From TrEMBL:
GO terms for cellular component: outer membrane-bounded periplasmic space. The chain crosses the membrane at residues 12-38. It comes from Allobacillus salarius. The lineage of its organism: Bacteria, Bacillati, Bacillota, Bacilli, Bacillales. GO terms for biological process: cell wall organization; peptidoglycan biosynthetic process; proteolysis; regulation of cell shape. GO terms for molecular function: penicillin binding; peptidoglycan glycosyltransferase activity; serine-type D-Ala-D-Ala carboxypeptidase activity. PANTHER family: BINDING PROTEIN TRANSPEPTIDASE, PUTATIVE-RELATED, PENICILLIN-BINDING PROTEIN 2A. Residues 56-230 form the Glycosyl transferase family domain. Keywords: Carboxypeptidase, Cell membrane, Cell shape, Cell wall biogenesis/degradation, Glycosyltransferase, Hydrolase, Membrane, Multifunctional enzyme, Peptidoglycan synthesis, Protease, Transferase, Transmembrane, Transmembrane helix. Residues 323-589 form the Penicillin-binding protein transpeptidase domain. The keyword Glycosyltransferase applies. InterPro entries: Beta-lactam/transpept-like, Glyco_trans_51, Glycosyltr_51/Transpeptidase, Ig-like_fold, Lysozyme-like_dom_sf, PBP_transglycosylase, PCN-bd_Tpept. This is PBP1A family penicillin-binding protein.
Length: 713
C-alpha cells in the first residue's frame, strides 16, 4: 500500500516537473518565436516627405502613407489616455497579451465555430499592423501573441504607445495621430483638447463608420463612449466628463484646394532628388524628408493662369501646347516651371523635350562665339548677301538684303544669311565648343544650326540656362529646383554638385545683353509695350507641310531678376497641326508675365553695367539730309565765303563730310561732327561750285545717303 502511494506521488511529481518543463519550453518558444515575428525595421514607419519654399511655406506633401511622425513627449497625456481607455484599459498592467480577453475570444470562436477577431491589446494591434497580415486565423493570433510578448520585453510601454499612435489609420488617407490632428482640427497633436483627443481615439476601430465627416451622430456617440471610459478609469473627473461630452465635435479643416499649377514643378523635384541625391521615388514617398525648393509660388501660379489664356494660341487644332520656365538671374534656381498648359502629375514635361529653337539660337551659336574673337565687335560689318554653301542656300525671312550690315543690326533684325555667313567664317566646331563647355551638345555639324536648323534641337530649360548667363557675366549654372534635402533626423544630405562653368567672357556677355536689349527696343520684338529693362530674342521655325505656317515659336527673354523661356507648338506637327502665328505669341505671353511680376517686384528701368567691361554705345542711325542751304557772305578781309547749313541729327556723334562739286568732279573739302553748318572760305565766284553733305557713321565708317545739292550763286 505504501509502495503504491509512493509510486502515485512519484508520477504526480513527474507530471508536475513535465508541466514545468513544458511551460518553460513553451515560454522560451514564445520568446524565440516572437523574435521572428517582430523586427526593428517594422517600426521605421513610412513618413510623408514635405516640400517647402525657402521661406518655410509648405508647397506639398509626398507620401505613400500620409504620416508625420511625432515623439511621445509631444503627445499630451490626455490623448494617450483616451486611446488606452477605449482600446486597451489594462495596457499598463499586462505583458503584451491580456489573457482574459484571449480566453474570451477563444471561447467565442469555439462556440460559434468561427474566426471572429478577439479584443487585442494595443501591443497586439501594433504587432498585427506592422508585422502580420489581416488574415483571421488561430495561427495568426498565435503569432500576434508571441510578437506582443516579445515586444513588451524589448520596448517600454511609452515606446509601444508612441509607435501605435504614429502607425494607426484614421481614414481619409490619414495615418498617425499628428496628420489626423491636422486633418480634422488644423492643429498639431500637442494642441488637442480632451474632447478632440477622444474624437480621434474613437476612429481607429472603424474609421469609415465613425468619421465625423460621414456620420456626425455616430461620431459623437463613439467619442462620448471614449470619454465615459476615461471617467471610469479615473482619467477624468465627473465635472470634466459632463463638460467634454457636452461639446460639439468642433471640426476645423483647412481649405484644401487643388493646385494644378504645381504638377510640373513637383515632378521636376522628384526627378532631381532621384538623380542628384540618389533616392528612389519610393524612398522619397516614404522616407519623411524635408525638401527645400526654389519655387516662387506667386510666379508659379501667375504663369499657370497666363498659359490658360487662348489669346496666345493660334493654331489649326485646339490641342496647341506650351512650355515655360522661369530662372532666377542670381542663382539659376527654377522659380516656376510648366511642362504643358495644364499638366497632370506624370504627364509629358515639354521643358525637357528638344525643339528646333529657330533664331533664338543665333546669340549662343553665332554672335557670342564671334564676339569672343578679337576681330569682331558689335558694330563690325558682316555680309548680308545671298550665297549658297553647297546645297544649302539660306534666305532672309523678309527677302531684304543690305549687302553689309553690323552684327548688332543683323541680330536685332534677325538676318538669316548674315548669321549663316558669320558662322561659316568662325567655324562650326569652334562655335559648338562653347556650348560643349557648359554640357550642351548636339550632333549637327552644318551651317543651318545658325538658324536653329537641327534634327532635335534644344529644350526650353537649356535655352533659358544659356540666356541667363548673359546678365550674369557669362557664368553658367545648371538650373535646379532643389535647394536642400534633410532626412527625418534633420541631417542635410549631400548632392552631386556641378562644376562652375562659363559660357562667354564678361565683355561678350555684356555686349549680348545690350544687343538683345536692342531686339526688344527696335528689333523683331519691338511690338511689345514694356518700359522696363528687358532683353531677349524671338524665334520660329517653318512648318514642314504648310507654306506660311509655323512649327515652333519661341521667345527667350531676361531682365535684371529673371530669365524666361517660352515655347509654343504642337507635340506632333503634321498637315493637320500647324500654327498660324510665329514668335509674336510667345513674346507677348512672356512680356505679359514680366509686366505682372513688375507689380510686386518693381523691376529697374535699365540694366546695370558690370565692372571692368566696356559699355556698348547705342547704334548710330543715319538719316538723309534734305534741307541743305548755301548762303553767300562777303567780308572786308575774308572776301567771299559760303555758309552751308542743314538740320543735324539729334545724335551728336554723326560725322558730316562736306563735298564740293565742280568740273573736275566731287571733292571732299571738310567735315564736322554733330553740327549743322560749315563755312567754305575763298570761294571763286565765277566757278559757281555746288555743294552737298554726306552723313557718316563713326562706328562703322559707312557713309549714308548724300544730301540735296546746292549752289551759292
Amino acid at each position: 500500500m505504501a509502495f503504491a502511494i509512493k509510486k502515485k506521488w512519484k508520477w504526480i511529481l513527474y507530471a508536475i516537473l513535465a508541466l514545468l518543463v513544458l511551460s518553460v519550453l513553451g515560454y522560451l518558444f514564445i520568446l524565440l518565436g516572437g523574435r521572428f515575428v517582430v523586427d526593428e525595421k517594422h517600426f521605421v514607419f513610412s513618413e510623408s516627405t514635405v516640400i517647402e519654399t525657402e521661406d518655410g511655406e509648405q508647397v506639398m506633401k509626398l507620401y505613400d502613407e500620409n504620416r508625420t511622425y511625432v515623439p511621445s513627449d509631444q503627445i499630451p497625456d490626455h490623448v494617450k489616455e483616451a486611446f488606452v481607455a477605449i482600446e486597451d484599459r489594462r495596457f499598463y498592467d499586462h505583458s503584451g497579451v491580456d489573457f482574459r480577453s484571449i480566453a474570451r475570444a477563444v471561447y467565442t470562436d469555439l462556440v460559434t465555430w468561427s474566426k471572429k477577431e478577439g479584443a487585442s491589446t494595443i501591443t497586439q494591434q501594433l504587432v498585427k499592423n506592422t508585422s502580420l497580415t489581416n488574415e483571421k486565423s488561430w495561427l495568426r493570433k498565435t503569432k500576434e501573441a508571441m510578437g506582443a510578448i516579445y515586444l513588451e520585453r524589448i520596448k517600454s510601454k511609452d515606446e509601444i504607445l508612441e509607435y501605435y499612435l504614429n502607425e494607426i489609420y484614421f481614414g481619409h488617407g490619414i495615418y498617425g495621430i499628428e496628420e489626423a490632428s491636422q486633418y480634422f482640427f488644423s492643429k498639431s497633436v500637442n494642441e488637442l483638447s480632451i474632447s478632440e483627443g477622444a474624437m480621434l481615439a474613437a476612429l481607429p476601430k472603424a474609421p469609415n463608420t465613425y468619421s465625423p465627416l460621414k456620420d456626425e451622430e455616430k461620431a459623437i456617440e463613439r467619442r462620448n463612449l471614449v470619454l465615459s471610459n476615461m471617467y471610469e478609469q479615473d482619467y477624468l473627473t465627473a465635472e470634466q466628463l459632463k463638460r467634454e461630452q457636452g461639446k460639439t465635435i468642433g471640426l476645423n479643416q483647412s481649405d484644401r484646394q487643388d493646385s494644378p499649377w504645381l504638377n510640373t514643378y513637383i515632378d521636376m523635384v522628384m526627378d532631381e532628388v532621384e538623380k542628384d541625391y540618389h533616392l528612389t521615388k519610393n524612398e522619397i514617398l516614404t522616407g519623411g524628408y524635408d525638401i527645400t525648393v526654389g519655387i516662387d509660388l506667386s510666379i508659379q501660379e501667375t504663369t499657370y493662369h497666363e498659359l490658360q489664356k487662348d489669346d496666345y494660341f493660334h493654331g489649326s487644332q485646339d490641342n496647341i501646347q506650351a512650355a515655360m520656365v522661369v530662372l532666377d538671374e542670381e542663382n539659376g534656381l527654377i522659380r516656376a516651371a510648366h511642362g504643358g498648359r495644364n499638366n497632370n502629375r506624370g504627364d509629358l514635361n515639354r521643358l525637357y523635350v528638344r525643339r528646333q529653337p529657330g533664331s533664338t539660337m543665333k546669340p549662343v551659336i553665332v554672335y557670342g562665339p564671334a564676339l569672343e574673337k578679337s576681330i569682331y565687335e558689335p558694330y563690325t560689318l558682316i555680309d548680308d548677301v545671298q550665297k549658297s554653301y553647297g546645297d544649302y542656300s539660306p534666305k532672309n525671312y523678309d527677302g531684304v538684303y543690305e549687302g553689309k550690315v553690323t552684327m548688332y543690326d543683323a541680330l536685332i533684325k534677325s538676318k538669316n544669311v548674315a548669321a549663316v555667313d558669320l558662322l561659316n567664317e568662325i567655324g562650326v566646331k569652334y562655335a559648338k565648343d562653347y556650348l560643349k563647355n557648359v554640357g550642351i551638345q548636339f550632333e549637327e555639324q552644318g551651317l543651318s544650326i545658325a538658324l536653329g536648323g537641327m534634327e532635335e534641337g534644344l529644350t526650353p530649360v537649356q535655352m533659358a540656362s544659356l540666356y541667363r548667363t548673359f546678365y550674369d557675366e557669362g557664368r553658367f549654372i545648371t538650373p535646379k529646383t532643389v535647394v536642400e534635402v534633410k532626412n527625418r533626423d534633420g541631417d542635410v544630405l549631400g548632392r552631386d554638385e556641378d562644376e562652375e562653368k562659363r559660357l562667354f567672357s564678361k565683355q561678350t556677355s555684356w555686349y549680348l545683353t545690350r544687343m538683345l536689349e536692342g531686339v526688344v527696343t527696335e528689333g523683331t520684338a519691338s511690338f511689345v509695350d514694356y518700359n522696363k529693362a528687358l532683353a531677349g530674342k524671338t524665334g520660329s521655325t517653318q512648318h514642314p507641310h504648310r507654306s506660311g505656317a509655323y512649327k515652333d515659336a519661341w521667345f527667350v527673354g531676361f531682365n535684371t531678376d529673371y530669365t524666361i523661356a517660352t515655347w509654343i507648338g504642337y507635340d506632333q506637327s503634321n498637315e493637320d497641326h500647324y500654327m498660324t502665328q510665329g514668335s509674336k505669341a510667345p513674346t507677348q505671353l512672356t512680356t505679359s508675365i514680366f509686366r505682372q511680376l513688375d507689380e510686386t517686384h518693381s523691376f529697374p528701368v535699365a540694366f546695370e553695367k558690370p565692372e571692368r567691361v566696356k559699355e556698348l554705345e547705342n547704334p548710330v542711325r543715319l538719316s538723309k539730309i534734305t534741307d541743305l542751304k548755301a548762303n553767300v557772305s562777303v567780308g572786308w578781309r575774308s572776301g567771299v565765303h559760303v555758309k552751308l547749313t542743314w538740320t543735324p541729327s539729334a545724335d551728336e556723334r554723326v560725322v558730316y563730310h562736306i563735298y564740293r562739286e565742280s568740273g573736275n568732279g566731287p571733292k571732299k573739302i571738310g567735315e564736322v561732327t554733330g553740327e549743322g553748318s560749315y563755312r567754305v572760305n575763298s570761294v571763286k565766284v565765277f566757278q559757281n561750285p555746288s555743294y552737298y553733305v554726306v552723313p557718316v557713321n563713326p562706328q562703322t565708317k559707312e557713309e549714308g545717303e548724300r544730301s540735296n545739292t546746292v549752289t551759292a550763286f
